[in-house]
Amino acid sequence: MFIELLDFLSIPFFLLLIDKGFEANYPEYRLHKKILTMQCGNLSVEYNDIGIRGGNLIKEALCNSDHFLYNLSLSRNNISYETTKVIAEGLYNNSSLQSLDIGSLNVCLDALKMIVEAISHSSSLRRLDLHANRINVLGAKLLSDFLRKCSTLQFLNLRNNLIGNLGLKYLGEAISDNSSLIYLDLERNDIGLLGLKSFCEMLLKNNTLQHLNLGCNCINNQGVEVIEQTLRNNSILQSLNLQHNSFGVPGARSIASILSNNSTLRDLNLSCNPSIGEDGVEIIAESISKNCSIQSLRLDGHYIRYQSSKSLGEMLMKNSSILQLNLRGCFINDEGAKLIAKALAHNTSLQNLNLQGNRIGISGAEAFSEALRKNCTLKMINLAFNCFGVEGVEKLGAALYENSDLKVLNLAFNFDCDHKERVARSLRRALFFPPLKVDKTFHSDQDLTDRQVGWRSNVNIYPSLDIIKSRVKYDDYRISSVYGWRTYGHIKDEQGCLPLHIAMRSGLEWKDGMQKLLEANYLAMKEPDEVTGLLPFMLAATGQKSDLESVYQLLQQNPDSIVGYV
Predict the structure, then answer these.
(1) Is-contact 393 414, C-beta < 8 A?
(2) Cα-only R_g, the chain
(3) Average pLDDT over every residue of 103-124
(4) Is the Cα dihedral 106, 110, 112, 115 positive or negative?
(5) Which of 164, 263, 310, 405 is most exposed, with minimal Cβ within 10 Å?
(6) How far apart are CA 17 and CA 127, in angstroms?
């Protein structure tokens, strides 16, 4: 039977060699293959040298009435003026495209004009990405005309362009008349106070924009004051990004005023504005304590000491709406961590807490361990890149065993790699044998299979095949053959083999866990096994324990395994 199998597989291997040869020497062949195997109307040809032939292939795909193209990504390509003209013709004759990504193309103004004119009258386009194209004032004026004509666009990414004050004024005039745009990204555009004033004046006339990114624009205290005056009379904006700017304590007071007078803002990003200092953090934390609308707050990249940690703890004690808090890289020590952990034990709303890259040691880890025993709402906590050591990680592992609500606990890079076996042994009980609850919702697919520990690169814990198969005898656990499957699906063993390959060689069947391993890492089905050199669908067909259902499902999920070669 093995010889017959080799004969059967010899043709695909031969065609694979031909396929790889064509891919290496003919860029158009790679593009043509992507178009032929295009699924669900998505086509991404990033990082390709698209010539005039490639442009014609994309034009054919855009004009094909039998297979609708919904999402097209051309970013990070070197496209000439002639190629852009061909693609623009295809865009003009397309009536199905919903998302177009042409970021980092560095096209000239005339080429950009052709593309914009081609999509101006589209009745289907929802998303346009033009990041990093060096759009100057003339390009901004061109886009303002486009925004007046296009009545369906909802997402516009203009990050990392050279729009400037005058360009922002043109965009503001168009946005005041636009009735469809929901998301606008203006990060890294060299926006000054004059441009910000004119834009905010026009923003008052708009009644649809919900998400605005103004990060990395050197906005000072006066700029934040302009934004504050605008948002006093704005009841639409839900998300505001002011990261990497240059305002200080006066700007923090303006933000506190926004939080006091605005009840629609949900997401506030203030990361990497170190000039606000501890006083600014305290002012913002105190204002959020009284605000019932903020759900997500980012303060990462600030220097948070004892007093500001105390203010944040009081905020968590009083606020009942905040769901996500990011304090990554804030130099928080054990004393500050204890204050936050104490508040966490009583908080009933926070679901996601990021404390990565701080200076939290063993006593801080012990404080979080006690908090996790009492907290029943937290779903994700990131404690990577701290100073817990083995003892601190073990204390958190003991809390994990008693906490059945936490889904993600990231403890990466908290201990020396030499101690990974000790940590693995101490945490194995918490990882694979959690306490059972009478509540049947705990056994749902989402709750049971999502819980994991983020190990990153400094520990490998693999459930043995016996542990995997032992799950099958419990009906409630049948849906979760591998506990922590999303983490382990991407980690290779010492031989460079993924869990999907290991389980297939061991004869694990589709219904007993193979499906979950594939869902954890879909890219694994395209990666050959390091031991045998066979693709996953071939592995599933070999040996006495071969599973026909696994072979069928793998080929159905990735028909390119055969079709692409034949």
Answers:
(1) yes
(2) 27
(3) 88
(4) negative
(5) 263
(6) 39
